[in-house]
Design brief:
single chain; alpha/beta; 4-stranded parallel beta sheet; 1 helix; 11% strand
């Protein structure tokens, strides 16, 4: 049906545009769900400080991610760091002012 074809085409166009994003700055937006970032494989710099993010799992597929700024979020478990091991280009990581920063093994 034409409606389905049009909707599928719109989704493809949207995903294509998302894949072009290299720098994302959404600090201070009270975001708690960032799953859409998994559709942005070319992100290199991501600024998501001052939000309500509690997991790092959505960053795992981002192979080109080199800088990740997550100050003042809700990341509390040290085990969340395992997701970043899938980001081979990551050079800068800011997690200050998250509950995780109070963990004795942090740093």
């Amino acid at each position: 049906t034409p409606l389905y074809s049009s909707a599928a085409s719109d989704v493809y166009k949207r995903q294509d545009k998302l894949s072009n994003i290299k720098n994302l700055n959404l600090w201070g937006n009270d975001l708690d769900d960032i799953q859409i970032i998994t559709q942005m494989p070319n992100i290199e710099i991501c600024s998501l400080s001052l939000n309500k993010i509690s997991t790092l799992k959505d960053f795992a597929p981002l192979k080109k991610l080199s800088e990740l700024y997550l100050r003042k979020n809700h990341i509390s478990e040290l085990s969340e760091a395992k997701y970043l091991t899938y980001c081979p280009s990551l050079k800068v990581l800011w997690l200050q002012d998250n509950p995780i920063a109070e963990h004795p093994l942090y740093r």
